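ok trying this again, last paste got cut off
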Amino acid sequence: MELGRELPTGQSSKKIYAVELTRKPTDPVLPGTSDAAPEGSLTVYKNTSDADAGTTECETGHDLLCYQAGNVGLLFEGGEPDLAQTRLATAIQDMGN
């Protein structure tokens, strides 16, 4: 995952950054996904309860993929995760175990 520039937000309780997931050269393009590297945003909240609320809000969105690890939330557009997003979700899940 590559962290990009900070994105504007009118809220001092969080910082938002652009992110891009790096694909392995051998990753096939799955049906329903793009061959472009997945791009999204990473939000750093002041605390976990704010991140919980942000994730809940994200999950109500249409065609959004939402992940959370502690006080950090990740958001990607697109309904079906590709392999890079699936690996990211697995890594986040493993951190919680």
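PB: full thing came through this time. Strands lie at 2-7, 14-20, 39-45, 64-69, 72-77.
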